[in-house]
UniProtKB/TrEMBL annotation:
One of its GO terms (molecular function) is metallopeptidase activity. SUPFAM superfamilies: Metalloproteases ('zincins'), catalytic domain. Residues 1-19 form the signal peptide. This is Metalloproteases (Zincins), catalytic. Keywords: Hydrolase, Metalloprotease, Protease, Signal. It comes from the Eukaryota. The keyword Hydrolase applies.
């Protein structure tokens, strides 16, 4: 009987932390080491898209031809190129986007590996669902399409700091719009575009956020390591927008809705609280990993929490239901766009995002 007890302890002790993932671990004052990939694909800067690509909602044949011939761009994100729209971003904004892209790449690399430790499984179970293993392979493949940039060219992304369809001033509930993405369906293929609003550049980058949390822990304050909501960063936001692209998310990754509990209302599954609610929902009522696997912010928060759990050794728990979710701004997907799309149609798409 004594021997049987020892065997049980050896087999199951590693899983005890998974059952109660919110339990804190002891912290040391040793400076954090960022688990960065060995190579930054954006170290030499991000190139500019052809000048004729001046209307990303109605991309001309000249633009499409120029993109096809523009073969000296930076190879990144699934073998494609990340480019700026000509003269749309300031030098400071370009630097910020370069950091955001590097951070999104870092997070995707961190999250595209199968969970093998109790800590990693706890994050998946919390933010994807108790049945995460049923969708794990599909989600990992989606994340790998972001991180595996060495393969042959698959798609391009053009980033603009203009607000071409005046969506940035719009608020979704009490949330500011940090940016919006769309896929233009042209005669020669599909083209992915992301517009970043001024509020996007108010979010710290991954290194700034990590250094802040490290400083707080060394001062004896573990609040910011324990609560996922304080760990938002530009890379996570950029990764969210990447997941909406059809060349990345298969099947299409959208913004799923969760119930608000108020008169049958719904809101988009943004932020760790709503991502957690979606993951833990009753499977027969549309919760769990199946819907989590088609929710963009699930990927963003899964990757972010895996990263910070590895760095801090503290589980980043979602906010309690009674806590107000302070996450702002949010990223919006406008979906597929064809030539001559109207502002009214885009406003209708924006208004369909519940909060």
């Amino acid at each position: 009987m004594f021997l049987f007890g020892i065997i049980i302890c050896l087999l199951y002790t590693p899983l005890f932390g998974v059952a109660t993932p919110f339990t804190n671990r002891s912290l040391s004052a040793v400076p954090f080491t960022l688990p960065r990939p060995s190579q930054n694909p954006f170290a030499n800067g991000i190139p500019t898209a052809p000048r004729v690509c001046n209307d990303l909602f109605n991309m001309s044949i000249a633009c499409q031809l120029a993109l096809k011939e523009h073969d000296n761009g930076l190879i990144a994100f699934g073998g494609g190129r990340l480019m700026f729209q000509d003269k749309s971003c300031s030098t400071v904004q370009k630097e910020g986007i370069g950091k955001a892209a590097w951070d999104a790449y870092t997070l995707s690399v961190s999250a595209s590996k199968p969970p093998i430790t109790g800590a990693q499984m706890a994050v998946w179970r919390t933010y994807v669902g108790p049945d995460y293993s049923e969708q794990q392979d599909r989600m990992l493949n989606n994340l790998k399409r972001v991180s595996d940039f060495r393969h042959s060219k698959k798609f391009d992304i053009i980033v603009t700091c203009n607000d071409p369809r005046h969506q940035c001033p719009i608020k979704v509930g009490d949330k500011q719009v940090g940016g919006y993405g769309w896929t233009y369906r042209g005669w020669m293929g599909q083209y992915h575009n992301i517009a970043l609003c001024k509020s996007f550049f108010t979010v710290p980058d991954l290194e700034e956020k990590t250094e802040f949390i490290e400083e707080q822990i060394q001062n004896g304050n573990t609040k910011y390591a324990q609560e996922a909501i304080w760990q938002k960063n530009m890379g996570q936001y950029f990764l969210h927008e990447m997941m909406h692209l059809d060349s990345v998310g298969k099947p299409h990754v959208k913004d799923e809705l969760v119930k608000t509990g108020r008169n049958g209302g719904t809101r988009s599954a943004y932020g760790p609280r709503n991502v957690y609610q979606l993951a833990q929902g009753d499977l027969e009522s549309g919760g769990g990993a199946a819907r989590s696997s088609t929710n963009a912010d699930t990927y963003a928060w899964l990757a972010n929490c895996l990263y910070f759990f590895e760095v801090t050794k503290v589980f980043p728990k979602p906010p309690r239901h009674e806590q107000k979710d302070e996450e702002t701004p949010i990223m919006i997907s406008l979906g597929d766009v064809r030539e001559n799309v109207t502002n009214e149609e885009l406003r209708n798409r924006m208004s369909s995002v519940g909060w």
